[in-house]
TrEMBL record:
<keyword id="KW-1133">Transmembrane helix</keyword>
<feature type="transmembrane region" description="Helical">
    <location>
        <begin position="26"/>
        <end position="45"/>
    </location>
</feature>
<protein>
    <submittedName>
        <fullName>Xylan biosynthesis protein IRX15/IRX15L</fullName>
    </submittedName>
</protein>
<dbReference type="GO" id="GO:0045492">
    <property type="term" value="P:xylan biosynthetic process"/>
</dbReference>
<keyword id="KW-0333">Golgi apparatus</keyword>
<dbReference type="InterPro" id="IPR006514">
    <property type="entry name" value="IRX15/GXM/AGM"/>
</dbReference>
<dbReference type="Pfam" id="PF21729">
    <property type="entry name" value="IRX15_IRX15L_GXM"/>
</dbReference>
<keyword id="KW-0812">Transmembrane</keyword>
<keyword id="KW-0472">Membrane</keyword>
<dbReference type="GO" id="GO:0000139">
    <property type="term" value="C:Golgi membrane"/>
</dbReference>
Amino acid sequence: MGKLNSNTKLILLHPYIQKQGSSNRLWLLAFISFFTIAFLLTLIYTRESITSKTAATSTTVTGPSSISPFGGAPLPTTVINTLLHYASKSNDSFHMPHSELKPISDVLRKCSSPCNFLIFGLTPETLLWKALNHNGRTVFIDENRYYAAYYEELHPEIDAYDVQYTTKISETKELIASAKEQIRNECRPVQNLLFSECKLGINDLPNHVYEVDWDVILIDGPRGDGPDGPGRMQPIFTSGVLARSKKGGNPKTHIFVHDYYRDVEKMSGDEFLCRENLVEHNDTLAHFVVERMEENSFQYCRSKNNSTSSSS
C-alpha cells in the first residue's frame, strides 16, 4: 500500500493558468466577431452604393426616353445659330450657304418632337442635320454603299442606308411620262412603295423607312450632273408618295429640293410635288408642303396647271 502511494503523482492546475486560457479564447472570439461585423457592414454599404449609382446612371441616360425614345429639350437658339454660322462658313466648295440652311433649320425648329427627318444624300451638312434635329429621328440615304458604311463607321451616331438608283438623267421625260400612264396602278400617289414596281419608286430601302411618318424630307442626292447620272427623279417621286401616304402624325410634310434650278429637279418637282404646294424657293432650294391624301386618290396635283411648265 505504501509502495503504491509512493508511485502516485498528483497534478494540480493553478487557477491562474485556467483563467489565462479562457481569456485568450474570449479575445479571439471578440476579434473574429468584430471582423465579421465589419466585413458585413462593408459589403452592405458597397452593394447599396453600387445600386444607387447604377440607378442614377440609368435615370440620367434613359430618363426622358422612358416616355419617348427621342424625348428631351430642344437645342437653344444660340446653339442653332452658331451651328448655322460655322456650317455656312465651311471651306468646302459644295457646302450650302446660310440662305439655304436657314429655311430648313426653321422648319426643324417648329417640328413637333420627336421630328422625323429623311435626307437623300450624304453631304458636307450631314452632321449639321443630325445636330439640328436634336432628339429626333434622322435617316440618310446615299447612292454609294461604301461611303455610307464608311460614314457610319466614322460617326456611329449617323443612321445611313444605301440605295441602288436605276434611272438616268437622259431618260427623265420618258420616266415621267411612264409614271403618269401608271398613275392608277404601280405609280399611284398613295401606296406602300415597298411593294411597288413603279420605275420612279424606290422600293429597296429597309422596311421601317416606309412605316415612318416623315415630317421633313430633304433631297440633296444623288448626283445630278451628266446624261448618265441617276438624277433625282426617284427621290422626288418617292418623297411625294411618302408624304401623301402618311398614316398618322402631322398631315403635312415639308419637302426641300436642292439644286432646283436644274431641269430634272424642276420638272420632277413640278410634276410630283406640284407647283401649288411650292411655298418658297430661290435659285437653288425649293420648299414644298405636301399634304396627306385619301387612298383612292389618283392625281399627284389638285390643279391641272401644275404640269404645264414641265411639259413646256
